[in-house]
Amino acid sequence: MTAPLIKQPSAWVPMVMSGVALTLVLGYLAIFGITEPQAAQDEGTAAHLFQLLLAGQLPIIAFFAIKYLPRDFMGALLVLVLQALAGLIPLATIFLLEL
Cα separation of 94 and 3, whole Å? Predict the structure, then answer.
């Protein structure tokens, strides 16, 4: 019997990255609050780290999908849905707070 798919690093690492991105957003809000966007200003380190965390998930998710969808379609699909939901939470936070 093989280990459950969620125990594979390519399954849980993207979810951890989403959690770190959400923590980054919430930490930024706790320190600086919701501020008005200023035109022609660099987004800052927090925004760049957020973008890197979310974009960095894509190759890991693609690797997971390519490797595990043919082996265990339903199990891999469930993990992919969890990864998508985990990625949408920090994005929804940014969108809803208009940051």
Answer: 35
